[in-house]
Amino acid sequence: MREYKIAAIPADGIGNEVISAGLEVLDALARADGGFKLTVENFDWGSDYYKKHGVMMPADGRETLKKFDAIYFGAVGAPDVPDHITLWGLRINICQPFDQYANVRPTRILPGIKSPLAGIKPADLDWVIVRENSEGEYSGHGGRSHRGLPQEVATEVSIFTRAGVTRIMRFAFRLAQSRPRKLLTVVTKSNAQRNGLVLWDEIAAEVAKEFPDVTWDKMLVDAMTVRMTLKPQTIDTVVATNLHADILSDLAAALAGSLGIAPTANLNPEGQFPSMFEPIHGSAYDIAGKGLANPIATFWTACMMLDHLGERAASERLMRAIERVTADPAMHTPDLGGKATTRMVTDAVLSILEAEKGRAAPSPAFAG
Ligand code: GGG
What we know:
By secondary structure, the chain is α/β, with parallel strands linked by helices. It folds into two domains: 1-101 and 260-368, Isopropylmalate Dehydrogenase (3-Layer(aba) Sandwich); 115-256, 3-Layer(aba) Sandwich (Isopropylmalate Dehydrogenase), CATH 3.40.718. 39% of the residues lie in helices and 22% in strands. The protein contains twelve helices and twelve strands. The strands form two sheets. It has a ten-stranded mixed β-sheet, with helices on both faces. Strand 11 and strand 12 form a beta hairpin. The longest helix is centred in the N-terminal third of the chain and has 19 residues, at 15-33. It is globular, with a radius of gyration of 21 Å. The chain starts with a strand and ends in an 8-residue tail after the last helix. The model is unreliable at 361-368 (pLDDT under 50). It binds glycylglycylglycine. Residues 75-77, 87, 91, 246, 278-280, 282 line the site of glycylglycylglycine.
């Protein structure tokens, strides 16, 4: 039996509801598969922990996480704690020291879900956005001085290193190469940002030589928003800086129907540290505790985690179940214009997995 240790950190707001739904589904999937087992430990880190202890996670938190195979993360952000405290105290406090430099964000229009783009076909929007996840605009360099005075100054320094850009570019080219269309768009703002992002362009051209079978092009980030909206079918794999890809992937999720369906993986591709998997959406305090959160992003995130763990068959089984559920408009939560609850969507996925249980087990004729 293959066994994986999962650290679950639901954190804030709807993170709690969607991660508990995701764990139910993962448990059902592991039982149906019979070939692997997930041992889950829950951590109560987040904004409530901060209000009690003054920190979002304990000082030795990362040491604790190192012994896990993967981290299943909910969302950060609370109305009564400054956002930069929650984000840097938990999500970035794990991503950066664990060198999870490749943030992978697939977007598709799932069956039954309506894109706000008129006349679009599902095949027109099948993208993966690669977000550089360790440097750039989120390097954490900068400062403030002369506070409160008219001459108060604040700097937020974007840092781009040859090593950091080269590794994310190679990751993105490799990912593009693994997809049928072998198409990569490198997004920058290298007309205005004439140092770091010119370095991006130069490194893209260098790395491209290692991937002669990948067709690639360059876009400025502002033009990219227009292309995503007006010519979505011309896009396949995208690589962009930490901030640009953060923004583009929210747009991508909205164009595919809702932020409530969008998953993400924070990968340390070399496997020196555990990777972390989370829905793209935040803590959504306006609907927290009401049972209305869409768990689909967290289920799709579970597929990415299973893929990463090497459980491809289980990942595909869960993705098929998700697609059968989204195909039914009665299973759409309010973010998709429906009336379904988190419980209803979770139960629908569970019942498909339950019905498939017999089929997932090895057939007696082939069982050793
Ligand atoms: N599950 C994603 C999440 O909690 N996001 C909160 C957030 O503010 N993220 C900002 C970022 O990822 O840069």
